[in-house]
Amino acid sequence: MLKEWPEEGPPLLWQVNDIGKGFSSVAVSGGRVYITGDQNGRLYLFAFDLEGNQLWKVDVDAAWARSHPGARATPTIDGENLYLLSGNGLLVCCDRATGRLKWKRSAKQFGGRPGNWGYAESVLIYRNLAIFKPGGQRCIVALDKQSGKPLWASSGFSAGPEYSSCIAVEFGRRPLILTGTREGLVCVDGRTGRLQWLNNWSARNTANCPTPAYADGYVFWANGYGKGGVCVKLTASRRRVLGRQVWTTKDMVCHHGGYIIHEGYIYGNHNHGWSCLDLKTGRLMWNARGVGKGSLCFADGMLYLFSERGGRAALATCSPRGLKITGQVQVKGSGPSWAHPVVIGGRLYLRYDTNLYCFDVRAGRELTSR
User: Fold this and answer.
1) Residue 366 above 90 pLDDT?
2) Sheet arrangement for strand 32-39
3) pLDDT tens digits for range 149-208
4) 10 Å Cβ neighbour count for 293?
């Protein structure tokens, strides 16, 4: 991919307007681009080809109508299936090619209730499981990904679902599911849902939105509203995996924008800018303004930053020595943008409000059909 952009920004391949209000990002697979949007009180799932032509649009559920209306979760693709959780807690499995419904389940079936801002997570596909968080006594639930049959529910704790997604890791040959909840950062056995540990650093925060990140036996989770981040080191005992808090920080107060771990360093949104921390010690390497508060993704050794307001995106270096902006581009929209940039197949996708943009960011290579 390009390491620098032209002064006018990367070439715009196509733009689609009026996809409905939303904060979700795209999922790209098999030459198709999937995204969600709210229109006229309904949540819709859209499919486009790689030229931006709409292939189909299906009605999924009533739109989330309370605080901050707009589509929330990004779809998850696995083989021929697409999984999506609505803001109201309806989980659907659809045919990726046509959007036809295969099965559905409701968070209410498992005793779950949404937080004040609705359900917002992307479904985790792990082995044969589709995993999501209804919240409550059965906070995390694993379904058979083909049939929707419940296979296990978490035990040993009760918590509200909050807004982060689950991630799967393997440590000491044990499958683990990690996620953020209303009561803090939790780790459960990926085979049974049994609680391994719970860290309450961010319990009862105003809202816990970002998804945890994992690397080299360390779990990092940061949140906004002045809270900051916590790092937990995993160790294995005979019966379970333990989590020991090793450091906390106020140098990554992250509301929505997220963070990534690369070569032993954490890069992420911090208040109205960006920061870099040493993964194992929490040492602050740098703070930078960048594009201001926003979201990010990582691809081909570079950071892609997208501002929460104003539609400003930037290409930046990913180095503990400092943040260097090597290109910028502007897109149109209104209100806050909590959608993350997506880079795949030589393309950069930016969703701002009701608009979707696709840019060519390849360097001397043909665009792929991914």
Assistant:
1) no
2) 27-29, 32-39, 42-49, 54-62
3) 999 999 999 999 999 999 999 999 999 999 999 999 999 999 999 999 999 999 999 999
4) 21
Q: What is the DSSP string of 217-240?
A: TEEEEEETTTTEEEEEEEEE-SS-
Encode pLDDT of 52-80 as tens digits. 999 999 999 999 999 899 999 999 999 99
- Rounded to two decimals, what is the model's pTM? 0.97
Quote the CA–CA distance of 9 and 313 in Å, as a whole number: 9
- Tabulate helix, strand, coil % of the chain (nearest 5): 0, 50, 50
Distance CA 359, CA 350 (A): 8
SS3 (DSSP) at 298 = strand
- CA-based nearest residue to 104, from 169, 39, 60: 60
Q: What is the rounded average pLDDT of the residues 353-370? A: 84
The arithmetic mean of pLDDT across residues 230-239, rounded, is 95
Strands 12-16 and 355-360: antiparallel
Angle at 39 between CA 38 and CA 45, to 5 degrees: 55
Taking the CA atoms of residue 103, residue 74, residue 249 and residue 318 in that order, the dihedral angle to the nearest 10 degrees is 130
Q: 311: pLDDT confidence band, cut at 50, 70 and 90? A: very high
Domains, the chain, with CATH or none: 21-297 (2.130.10.10)
Using the structure block, give the residue that is written with the tokens 């909590």: 338
Residue 285 buriedness (CB in 10 A; 0-12 / 13-18 / 19+): middle
Q: CA 121, CA 130: separation in Å to the nearest integer?
A: 12
